[in-house]
Write a sequence for this structure.
């Protein structure tokens, strides 16, 4: 789900930056102004996915496990992040999802601006790899959908709660097909 949300943020940011979408506003801001407001969320979301710290998601480890045929490409993209991780993490922690003193905020923002070409390429390569792997899921992960369905059913049964399968279809976690009713 976080990956789809990252794609959404990236597409919104791009539409704003290209002035394809400009919200009505009393501040008379253009799309680029709004894009600069979305950018910290986009970069921070990306950082959450590639977070290498203890307890972080580090999607590269997940992908290497799920897609062994693509390990070289996964490793190539991971290595693009590596030299910029401190700058990215500082930006996320001080400008994106958290707050800090003005001095720390501007230092983190400047650090990101100084590396904008490199980090921009790393993000784009990451999105390209993610798209490739999403498109390979059906062929390379034949047990994925049954595992998700089993998880959903177990989750529902353990706490008498529901899972919105239409939302999982929208997020491309479940295929957009009709399911046969198993019970009743």
């Amino acid at each position: 789900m976080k990956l789809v949300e990252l794609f959404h943020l990236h597409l919104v940011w791009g539409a704003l930056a290209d002035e394809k979408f400009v919200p009505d506003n009393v501040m008379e801001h253009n799309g680029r102004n709004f894009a600069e407001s979305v950018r910290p969320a986009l970069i921070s979301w990306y950082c959450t996915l590639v977070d290498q710290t203890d307890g972080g998601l580090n999607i590269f480890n997940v992908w290497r496990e799920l897609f062994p045929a693509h390990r070289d490409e996964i490793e190539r993209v991971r290595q693009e992040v590596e030299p910029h991780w401190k700058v990215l993490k500082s930006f996320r922690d001080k400008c994106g999802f958290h707050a800090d003193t003005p001095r720390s905020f501007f230092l983190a923002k400047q650090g990101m601006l100084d590396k904008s070409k490199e980090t921009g390429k790393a993000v784009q390569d990451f999105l390209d790899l993610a798209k490739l792997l999403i498109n390979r899921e059906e062929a390379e992960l034949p047990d994925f959908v049954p595992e998700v369905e089993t998880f959903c059913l177990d989750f529902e049964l353990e706490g008498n709660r529901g899972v919105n399968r239409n939302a999982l279809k929208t997020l491309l976690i479940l295929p957009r097909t009709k399911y046969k009713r198993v019970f009743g």
In short: The two ends are 30 Å apart (CA to CA). The chain has two domains: 2-142, 143-184. Residues 70 and 152 are 28 Å apart (CA to CA).
